Amino acid sequence: MTDKDFLSMRKTLMTILLISACYTAHGEDDTAAQPDSDLPTWADEQLTPFHEDVSNWVETTSRRIDSFFGTTDAFTVDTDSYLRISTGGEWRQGQEFDDDWGARFRLDLPTSEKRLRLIIESEPEETRGTLGEQDTELPSDRPDGLESLRIGLNRLGDRDKTKRWKTEVGAGIRVRLPLDPYARVATQRLWTLNDGPWRLESDNRLSWFNHEGYSARTRWDLGRSLDENRHLRFITNVQWREEVDNLEYSETVELNRRLNKRSALRHTLAVIGASGSHPRMEDAYLQTRYRRDVHKGILFLDVAPSVHFPHEYDHDPRWQMNLSLEMYFRRHFDRAVF
After folding, report:
1. End-to-end C-alpha distance for the chain, whole angstroms
2. How far is CA 3 from CA 9, 10, 319, in A?
3. Which residue ranges are recorded for the region named Disordered (predicted)?
């Protein structure tokens, strides 16, 4: 895809952001009349063919690459390849509104060998900074150009994570000069506690990049459904990066509430800390995030006001607002709002 194509996508998303802001309130009360979209008919007629063309290009590209390295099965098996185009911005108290756009893609090539996958990804997890930066990430905060692109092989485990630890091992290079080789091992496990409603999931990763050194991250997610529309989660993250030699941790409580099949609210209380020679609380915040499936499970609008108590302002309250509009391009996708 050319730069002209991406500029066209950006203009399209910005136009839709304005349209969706006008139509979302109406869509909440008129779900029966417009079950899949808040957009007017003329916008649907323009957007749907455009989305189908780009989604077909994403899937066809991944399958052609995989058929070159693998077998003709590449044209029939499932693939996790996708492209995400996003636009939006962030306002922080005392600062100007910061707006930008971003693109993230992943080519998942599963048939080169059984359980061996060639992954080409624009934004590996290790490039996303501190835990606080990950929570409030903007398109403009993401690495530009090819410096974050990674190409590697992943060896997938065949174990069921509800019964045993599931392990994934990968290695490859990050495209930068000089080239940056990396290696990574990840493990996952999921428990149902006492056959009850509580589920505990563990997700862990140990990585090495030649340029940044070692990093490690562990995530523990304890949650349960309160009823068919509400879900409660307690999330613990711990992260260490050799590059800054600092241990970070966060504790988060989330209450997710589904308003209808296309809208949801997420209420979050989080505390972020750092532990080194002088442990301290870096930030605490309260956030309410509204997420709306604006158009047929491919276009999502997020509005997230929050109040932060950052260390740099002596934990005085600072208001913040995040807006984003994301469009996903892939043949098959999950329609879930949260």
Report:
1. 30
2. 10, 11, 36
3. 123-144
Q: Where are the domains of the chain?
A: 3-329
Closest by CA position to 327, among listed 287, 293, 303, 304: 293
Asked if residues 210 and 180 have their Cβ atoms less than 8 Å apart, the reply is yes
Distance between CA 268 and CA 257 in Å, rounded? Answer: 11
Q: How far is Cα 323 from Cα 303, in angstroms, rounded to an integer?
A: 5
3-state secondary structure the chain: CCHHHHHHHHHHHHHHHHHHHHHHHHHHHCCCCCCCECCCHHHHHHHHHHHHHHHHHHHHHHHHHHHHHCCHHHHCCCCCCEEEEEEEEEEECCCCCEEEEEEEEEEEEEEEECCEEEEEECCCHHHCCCHHHHHCCCHHHCCCCCCCCEEEEEEECCCCCCCCCEEEEEEEEECCCCCEEEEEEEEEEEEEHHHCCCEEEEEEEEEEECCCEEEEEEEEEEEEEEECCEEEEEEEEEEEECCCCEEEEEEEEEEEEEEECCEEEEEEEEEEEEECCCCEEEEEEEEEEEEEEEECCCEEEEEEEEEECCHHHCCCCEEEEEEEEEEEECCCCCCCCC
> Which residue in the block uniquely carries the two structure tokens 């174990």?
159
CATH 3.40.5.60 matches 3-329: no
pLDDT at 144 over 50: no
By the 8 A CB rule, do 82 and 58 touch?
Answer: yes
Euclidean distance between CA atoms 328 and 80, whole angstroms: 12
Compute the average pLDDT of residues 250-266: 94
Q: Residues 266, 55, 324, 35: what is their CA dihedral angle, to the nearest 10 degrees?
A: -60
Choose the weakest-confidence range: 9-13, 54-58, 83-87, 181-185: 9-13
- pLDDT attached to residue 99: 81
**Are the C-beta atoms of residues 258 and 337 closer than 8 Å to each other?**
yes
Choose the most confident range, by mean pLDDT, from 20-24, 27-31, 102-106: 102-106
